[in-house]
Amino acid sequence: MHASKKHYDELASMFYRLFGEASFELPEAEKTLIDDLLEHTEYGVAYDVLIDALREHKIPLTEDDFRKIRAIGELMNLDTESLNEFVSG
Length: 89
What we know:
The protein has about 90 residues and is mostly helical. It has one domain. The chain has 4 helices and no strands. The protein has helices spanning about 5-20, 30-40, 45-55, 65-75.
């Protein structure tokens, strides 16, 4: 079963809202890659790149950032338990 256009639009909106409001800054290479992936509706890969970048660069998240990232993962039916390591308090 394929997700609907509405589902994809909601995911894209959530990603762009996250990046527009986030307290963290990703390195330019990761931002460019994620943007390209989102343009090609590769939301799962974009999410993986985001999580990998957060881990690699040891970027702490605020509770608000965490909630937004978790919501994106949950909308894609991903396990989001490992995100707890990023909450900075």
